[in-house]
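Reading a protein record of the kind used here takes only a little practice. These numbers are not coordinates but entries in a learned vocabulary of local backbone shapes. Here is one such record, which you should read through line by line.
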Amino acid sequence: MPPETPPRKEPVAFDQIMEGLLLHAMKGRLDAEARRRLLGAGVDVDQPLSSAYPLTVLVEAIRICADVLYPDRPRDEAWYLMGRRSLEGFGATAMGKALFGMARVWGPRKLLAHMTRALQTAINYARAHAVDLPNGDVELTAEILPDYLALHGQRRLMDPHFLRGIIAQLVEVGGARAPVVLVTSAAPLESRYVYRVSLSQAQPLPAPPAPPRA
């Protein structure tokens, strides 16, 4: 009897990123047509979310949300902005509040060092690592995990512009604003993207207002 072929691992998006995107970042912005399109893509925003969704559902959800929010923006810019909004929405989830509760204390450098943890709460097929550069900047690499490389050769599993938006927003969560530049190719089937986060040029952001007293 021939050996059994192990089941192929499928890339998925977890409910935290779907909740952050659809229930928080898009709160009040999803009209009947957008909800219909999302339902056709595989997610019903009027029902409790599933624990995980195929990556194709997340990609289509981002596309639909970008059409709603940024219909006149170039595609890459719209996806960058959606990356920012998605992380902002994730911060409103229970998981996001726990992960970013100490964000201002940690600062952007330590948050970037925890990028893999942030990714693992959202997707199952990628990792990231950050390296401090001599001038104070950070080089952050995001890459597809080896088990998913063959599948990535058939279709894009990561979007470099969406990721750049996530990184830029993560820096702001840490209390600063800094340029984030993709320094590798943005070709569709690249399995690894490298970003330079210019923390040497970071501008501090004002502290958020304190919540009202009960």
